Amino acid sequence: MLFEFPTEELTVPGLRHFRRRVTPEMQTELLETIDRSPWQNELRRRVQQYGYRYDYRRKGLDVEARIGPLPDWSLELLDRFRREGLTDSTFNQLIINEYTPGQGISFHVDCRPCFDDTIFSISLGSPCILTMRQVSSNATKDILLEPGDVLSMSGEARYDWQHGIAARKTDRTQGRVIKRGRRVSLTFRRVLDN
């Protein structure tokens, strides 16, 4: 069962943040399911990839190198989010990243020639601050991603803003210090057919 919370429209056009859409019980179940599959250690963090393999060294993918379908559990989750109006996109690629305290990801825009307009991400486990940075001005917007939050980026948020997570063990927001634990993100994309 998903919580019912209003959508917050942020000041970054094309960025939608759905708060606490995955219950703690569902998060536990998802993390157990994810952990039953093998993790790859090709980066400073552990990763699982489904659909198509993204090559981090080349910063691209080969659409001919399909690695299989998305897991059934992920398709069921996407169907639920579609029914609830969180997305109307169809995805064929999933990258699962594990972040432990002190790990992050540098500012980036997801591969433009590789993926369609919508990037759809689910945050499980620990809270953290995701920072959006406008490419043209370097203006930033911090977003507190809490366990069970869903983020959708399209349009300007997808192409004109970078996103990243600072490599640190704590985050500060609204006068609070939040200690990071294990965080797992599920990021869904649609591979372009080039």
TrEMBL record:
Residues 90-192 form the Fe2OG dioxygenase domain. GO terms for biological process: demethylation. The keyword Cell membrane does not apply. GO terms for molecular function: demethylase activity; dioxygenase activity. The keyword Oxidoreductase applies. SUPFAM superfamilies: Clavaminate synthase-like. It comes from Streptomyces murinus. InterPro entries: AlkB-like, AlkB-like_sf, ALKBH4, Oxoglu/Fe-dep_dioxygenase_dom. Gene3D superfamilies: Alpha-ketoglutarate-dependent dioxygenase AlkB-like. This is Alkylated DNA repair dioxygenase AlkB. Keywords: Dioxygenase, Oxidoreductase.
